[in-house]
Amino acid sequence: MNKQINTTNDPKKEAAEALPGGGMLLSSSNPVEEDTALLKETFKEKYKWGFVTDIEADSAPPGLDESTIAFISAKKDEPEWLLEWRLNAYRHWLTMEEPDWAHLKYNKPNYDEIIFYSAPKSLADGPKSLDEVDPELLETYKKLGIPLAEHAALAGVAVDAVFDSVSVGTTFKDKLEEVGIIFCPISEAVHSHPELVKKYLGTIVPYSDNYYATLNSAVFTDGSFVYIPKGVKCPMDLSTYFRINAKSSGQFERTLIIAEEGASVSYLEGCTAPMRDENQLHAAVVELIALDDADIKYSTVQNWYPGDENGVGGIYNFVTKRGKCQGDRSRITWTQVETGSAVTWKYPSCILLGDDSVGEFYSVALTNNYQQADTGTKMIHIGKNTRSTIISKGISAGQGQNIYRGLVRIQKGAENARNYTQCDSMLMGDRCGAHTFPYIEVKNKTAKAEHEASTSKIGEDQLFYCNQRGISTEDAINMIVNGFCKEVFRELPMEFAVEARRLLEVSLESSVG
Amino acid sequence: MTTPLLEITNLHANIEGKEILKGVNLTVMPGEVHSIMGPNGSGKSTLASVIAGHEAYEVTDGSIRFNGIDLLELEADQRACAGVFLAFQYPVEIPGVSTKFFLKAAVNAIRKYRGEEELDAMDFLDMVEEKAESVSLSIDLLDRNVNEGFSGGEKKRAEVFQMAMLDPLLGVLDETDSGLDIDALKIVAEGVNKLRSKKRGFIVITHYQRLLDFIVPDFVHVLKDGVIVKSGDKSLALELEEKGYAGIESCGSACSCS
Ligand SMILES: Nc1ncnc2c1ncn2[C@@H]1O[C@H](COP(=O)(O)OP(=O)(O)OP(=O)(O)O)[C@@H](O)[C@H]1O
Ligand SMILES: [Mg+2]
Question: Given CB atoms, is B116 within the 8 Å cutoff of chain A?
Fold first, then answer.
C-alpha cells in the first residue's frame, strides 16, 4: 500500500524548506516592473469587469478570482481578447471538479493558498553564494557533470554573470531569424505576433479541456512560442535550457509550437538538473500543430523535486500536452524521461487528422521512494493510413508507483490505421508497484492495433550475474536499467540521451541494497 | 609448500533456512582440475554459488580460503575481481545490454581491481576477436544483448568465451556440457584445455563422464546430499557411469573427503 504524500498547509514554504535558501531562477531584468506606470494607464482603459486591482504589487494575493486574472493580464499588458479568454477559462474552471480517476494518492492543492502571480524576484533575494545552498543539491550537480558555473544558476544563487547568456542568446537568435523562425517567450509573442497566437492558442487544448488545462488557461504566466515557417528545417535543437537563465517559466507554463508545411523542428524541454522550485503545483499546457509534411519532435527530461525519501514535499506535475497532425504526412514525436516530481499526471497525445500522418510516444518514467506517476498517451486516429507507436518503460523502485494509462482510438474513417503499443514495467524491490491501463477502441475494420506488455523484476539473478563478472551492484543496476530504456533513449537527441542516462543513475542511487 | 588455490573446510550453507551444504571439504591446488558429480539436487550448483558469493545463500559454518585470503569476507564482485569465475548452469539474459558492452565493463572492472590500466576500445576488440576464435564463437553474437536469444549451446560457449576474456585463477564450470552437441562439446573442452595452466585451477561440475574424456580431471568427487561422499581419480567417473550413484560406496572414515 502506498503512503499518502504529505503536504503542509503552505506548499511554498515547504518546498523552500526542503531546499534551503529558497529562490527561483531569475531573470536579469524585469521589463514589467519598469513599465508599471504605463501598465496602470492601459489597465484603466481596459478595465471593465468591475473590480479593482493594485497592479503596483509584485505579487497577487494568494487565491484566485477574476481580479487575480485581470492582474496577471494587466501585468503582461495583454490584449483584451486574451484577458477575455482567460476569464472564460476561469469561469469554466469554477464549474469543474478536480479529477480523481488517476491511480494517484495525494492531498489536493489548496487553490486559495497559491500565489498565482509573482513577479520574478530581484537577484538580491536568492541565496548569496553557493555556501548557502544545500550541499546535497550541489553533490547531485557534480554527479550529473554540470559545469560549476551553472550550479549557481540552477540553485538560484544571486549571481548575474553566471554564463554568458547574452551572447549565447544572440548568436542563437540571429541564426534563427535568418530563416524566419520565431522562438520567444509566449508573453512576447502575444505582442510581436498576435495574429499567430490568436489563431492557434487553445485550438489543440481548448480552455475547457480538463481541470488543470483550464486552470492553466486562466492563469498561465509564461512559456515558449515557436513558429517554423513553410519548408524550413530548424537548423538546431531548440531548448528551453537557453531560456532558463533569462526567465523562470513559473508553474503555469504554456507552450505553443507551430510547424508550417514541410517544416521540421526538434524541441527540448527541461533540464536534467533537479531544478530548485518553490512552487508545489505545476500545471503546464503544450500545444503542437504540424501542417502537411511537417515534423515536430518534442523531447522532455523532467526532474523536478521529487520530495524526500519519506515522501514529504515534492512537485505535483499535472501537465496537458497534445499535438495535432493536421496536415497529410505530418509527424509528431513525443519523447519523455520523467524522473522527478512527487506526483506526475501527464499524457502527451497525438490527434492524427491528416492522412498518412504519424504519432509517436516514447516514455521512460521512473518512480523512487514515494513518487507516483500516472502517465501515458492518447493516439486518436482520424485520417487514413495513420500510424502510431507507443513505447512506454516504467521503472519503480522504493515504494514508487508507476502507472501507464493509454488510449488508442481508431475512428471510423481511419482506413488502414495502425498502432503498435509496447508497455514494459520494471520493478526494483517488492514495495513498489506497476500498473497498466490500456484502452483500445477500433471503429474501422481495416485498422489494426497491437499491444504488448511485460513486467520484470530487476532480478537478484541478473545482479549476481553482473557481480560474478566483476561489475559492482551499482554499475549493474545502471546497466540493466539503461538496457531496459534503450528503445526510448535512442529517440533522444544525443546530448540529451547522455544526460538522461546520468540522471537515471543519480535517481536510482541507493535504491537497491 | 604451495598455497592451495581453493581450500573449502567443513562448509555448511543454507538457502531460505534449509541446509543444502552439510560439511563440504575440498582442496584445489593451482593447476588442478577437479570434477564434481552427483545426483540432481545434491547441492552442486549451490556449492558453485556459495564459492562465487551469491547473497541468497547463508554460510552457517566452515570456511573458504582462496589463494591465501578469506573468500567469505569478499562481496561477489570482489571475488570475481580476485579471480573467481563461474560459468553458469543457466546464464541469465540482460535485455538492451550488448554482450560487448557488458564484457568491456567486466574486463575493465577487473583490470581496475588489479591495478591495471583500462583497455581502450581497440585493444578490447582485438582481445575479443582472439578469444572468440578460441571457442569458435561468432563475433556477430557479441553485438546481441547478453544471452538474449542465444541457443542453449551458444550460451554455454559464450560463458567459456567470457572466462577466457576475464582470465581467472579459478574457473567453476557448472554443467557447461549440458545442451551441447558432440562437436560443440569438443570445442568447449578445447577452449577450457587451452586455459589450463600451472597457476589456474578448475572445478568442473557435470553429470556425464563423456566431458571428462575431453577435459581430463585430476580428481573426481561425488557430492551427495550436501557432502562429498567419495573422491577418486578419473576412473571414479567411469565407475559412476556403470553403477550409478546408488552403487557408490562412501570412502569410509579413512578418507579425508567427507
Ligand atoms: N531458492 C531456493 N529455495 C529453496 N530450495 C532451494 C533453492 N535453491 C535451491 N534449492 C534446493 O537446494 C537443493 C540443491 O540444489 P542445487 O541446484 O544446488 O542442486 P544441483 O546439485 O546443482 O542439481 P542439478 O544436478 O539438478 O543441477 C535442491 O534441493 C534445490 O531444490
Ligand atoms: Mg545444478
Answer: no
